[in-house]
Specification:
Low-confidence stretches: none
Mean pLDDT: 92
Strand order of the largest sheet: 2-1-7-8-9
Structural class: alpha/beta
Length: 131
């Protein structure tokens, strides 16, 4: 989780800095942080794109970590992910479909539906702040 916190410092959305690290057998496979679409302006440069009190200009850290693994041909099936904040509903679905089996997270962030989905999908969802 220390590495995920460090990765979060690269975030380009000043509303919330989130970092993610995908790991298998203590080996880092991929990292990601929340930031704008590749080659587009960042929130820190031009401002936020707000919907329902949430900035939608960024791609979330978890999604970016999965994308980086795909871009580099890294298999992440049966891996674990460490995220500084719990995944949103959409990122949770991406994580599950990527084959990641365990999600460790720091602070809880917004969406309680992921607990039920994790149980149904047989995904370990581990809150590091309350364990």
């Amino acid at each position: 989780m220390n590495i995920a916190n460090e990765v979060a410092t690269r975030s380009t959305c000043n509303r919330k800095h989130v970092g993610a690290v995908i790991v298998r057998e203590k080996t880092i496979l991929s990292t990601g942080y929340n930031g704008s679409v590749r080659n587009m302006s960042h929130c820190d440069e031009i401002g936020h794109e707000m919907e329902n009190d949430h900035c939608v200009r960024t791609i979330h850290a978890e999604a970016n970590a999965v994308v980086q693994a795909a871009r580099n041909g890294v298999r992440i099936d049966d891996a674990e992910i460490y995220v500084t904040a719990s995944p949103c509903y959409n990122c949770f679905k991406i994580i599950v479909n990527a084959g990641i089996k365990t999600i460790y997270f720091g602070e809880f962030y917004r969406d309680k539906r992921i607990a039920d989905l994790a149980r149904d999908a047989n995904i370990k969802l581990i809150d590091l702040c309350h364990n």
